[in-house]
Amino acid sequence: MKDLIILKIGGSVITDKFSQIPKINPENLKRISKEISSVYNKEKMSLIIVHGAGSYGHVIVSKTSIDKGIKTENQIKAFAETQRLQNELNCIVTKYLIEEDVPAIPCKHQPLL
Questions:
Q1: Residue/partner pairs of 40-43 with CB below 8 Å, 24 or more apart
Q2: Residue 9 to residue 78: CA distance in whole angstroms
Q3: For the stretch 33-64, what's the b/e string if a residue is b when 16 or more beta carbons lie within 10 angstroms of its beta carbon?
Q4: Cβ contact 14:24 at 8 Å
Q5: Strand, helix or coil at 53?
Q6: Residue 5 forms beta bridges with which residues?
Q7: pLDDT in tens, 37-47
């Protein structure tokens, strides 16, 4: 049995960290997916990949301060939108990995309110 490897990819690497709207960085995402594929397909390792939110989360968080707690209806909506966007990014990352022959399966966490 091979060791389990957990790889964290920073959200600012796979998204455009300067964008005020959710936007991926396709060049970095493609390159990283190829790099993962080259090792994964050679080693057939047990791999869990997690990634940050980048522009898919931090823009809303900084505008609404939901990282400091949710106290208003608008913050609940902002939190919901942040979760939706993070799920969208997760599916995009998964798509890039699959295109590079990495059998990635998107998973999401269930946040506690």
A1: 40/102, 41/101, 41/102, 43/2
A2: 24
A3: beebbeebeeeeeebebebbbbbbbbbbeeeb
A4: yes
A5: coil
A6: 47
A7: 999 877 777 89
Within 10 angstroms of residue 24's Cβ, the number of other Cβ atoms is 20
Instruction: Report pLDDT for 72.
Output: 95
Query: Which of 1.20.1640.10, 3.40.1160.10, 3.40.50.300, 3.40.50.150 would CATH assign to domain 4-99?
Result: 3.40.1160.10
Q: What is the pLDDT of residue 112?
A: 55
Name the 3-class secondary structure at 110. Answer: coil
C-beta neighbour count of 26 within 10 angstroms = 12
3-state secondary structure of 48: strand
**Alpha carbons within 13 A on the beta-carbon side of 74:** 5
Cα–Cα distance, 78 to 84 (Å, whole number)? 10
Q: Which residue's structure tokens are 């979760």?
A: 83
Would the pTM of this model clear 0.90, i.e. be above it? no
User: What are the residue boundaries of the structural domains of the chain, listed by start?
Assistant: 4-99
